[in-house]
Design a protein that fits this description.
The chain has 259 residues and is mainly α. It contains eight helices and no strands. It has a domain of 78 residues. Helix 3 packs across helix 4.
């Protein structure tokens, strides 16, 4: 009986020892897995921090690009407004030029009628003065020849190009109601008359125009075609990028506009 009890005790001891060894191995394996999981967790945390920094950097870039896009959109709107304003101004100038051409044609017809009337009157006068003396005719002929020679001498001293510049200046003044400074710029501009500065200056020095009336005509065009205020018209008349009238001429124009 004692043998059986001893054998059973030994068996139980061996079984417990075996179970204890397995438990230690299992615990060690679990500890290894725990360490691996901790390391993996730390790696994921570090990666998460990097991702957060990347997200923040991208957010900043998005914000900066959005602001830049809004700024560019504002500039585009401003430029679009300026283009529309220039197109309206150009259309107004075209209409004013067409109106001036019509007025010029009417004036030409009136001048033709007046010339024909003068010619007819001259013929009648010549018929009534058939008793003039030879001496008077000689004196008149002498005066005419002297005048013609003097005029020819003066014309020969003036370059043809200068005369052309003066004729162009009169066209700008009469047909487009331009200012003195505006006509000069137009004469020397490569997109305008393209005259030398000397020819343009000769034209400006010798043209005879009522600049105040030109300023008033321009002011009326702005008032009727573009519905501008008196203050805006004044600024446009004296602007270096507008009509370039003097302050005195612009003030005269504004003072004589319809209230």
């Amino acid at each position: 009986m004692n043998k059986y009890l001893l054998a059973g005790g030994l068996t139980a001891t061996l079984f417990l020892a075996a179970c204890s060894g397995e438990a230690e191995e299992t615990a060690e394996a679990d500890n290894g897995q725990i360490e691996e999981l901790k390391e993996e967790n730390e790696s994921l945390r570090a990666q998460g921090e990097d991702d957060d920094e990347t997200i923040e950097a991208n957010d900043e870039k998005i914000s900066s690009l959005t602001e830049e896009n809004e700024s560019l959109s504002g500039e585009v709107e401003t430029l679009t407004g300026e283009v529309e304003s220039l197109e309206e101004e150009n259309e107004a100038l075209k209409q004013r030029e067409e109106s001036t051409e019509e007025d010029s044609e009417e004036a030409s017809v009136e001048e033709t009628v007046e010339e024909e009337t003068e010619e007819q009157t001259t013929e009648e006068t010549e018929e009534q003065t058939t008793e003039e003396t030879v001496e008077e005719e000689t004196e008149e002929r002498t005066i005419e020849e002297t005048t013609e020679e003097s005029g020819m001498a003066e014309e020969e001293d003036i370059p043809k190009e200068w005369e052309s510049a003066l004729n162009s200046a009169y066209s700008y003044a009469e047909m487009m109601d331009m200012s003195k400074a505006g006509i000069y710029d137009q004469l020397v501009s490569e997109y305008g008359g393209n005259f030398p500065e000397e020819a343009a200056q000769y034209a400006i020095d010798n043209i005879e125009v009522d600049w105040k009336e030109n300023a008033l005509a321009s002011a009326i065009s702005y008032q009727e075609m573009m519905d501008m205020s008196h203050s805006a018209i004044y600024d446009q008349l004296i602007s270096d990028y507008g009509e370039q009238f003097t302050a005195e001429e612009a003030q005269y124009a504004v003072d004589n506009l319809e209230q």
